[in-house]
Amino acid sequence: MAQSKTNRIESPTGRLLSVREERVFKYMREHGSISPQEAEKYLHNHRLSGTIHRLRKKGYDIETLRIDTTNAYGEPCWYGRYIFAK
């Protein structure tokens, strides 16, 4: 079902968000942050960093928190968790 333009979110720069950007924006607003794993599982967004990049270009102040972890092989790695800057 298509969303009408009257319900679309306008960014701080005055540009409308794409549907994908809106989903990430709403998820972050509701949950406080988003990780690539959450974006893939709940929003079917397989390229969260690209969506975050576009939101930043549209005027949103989003910080990346580095989360250190280990992968399935026990090797150290990290991922970004994105939050709105205070």
Helix content: 25-40%
What is the CATH first-level class name? Answer: Mainly Alpha
What number of domains? 1
Chain-averaged pLDDT:
93
Structural class comes to alpha+beta
At the fold tier of CATH, the topology name is Arc Repressor Mutant, subunit A
Note the run of SSEs as H and E: HHHEE
Low-confidence stretches: none
Question: What gap, in angstroms, lies between the N and C termini?
Answer: 34 Å
For the biggest sheet, the summary is:
2 strands, antiparallel
Main sheet: which strands, in order across?
1-2
Strand content: 15-25%
The rounded Rg comes to 14 Å
Count of DSSP-assigned helices:
3
| Beta-strand segment tally | 2
> Do you know the CATH architecture?
Orthogonal Bundle
Shape: elongated
Secondary structure topology:
Layout: H1 19-31, H2 36-43, H3 48-57, E1 62-70, E2 76-84
Antiparallel strand pairs: 1-2
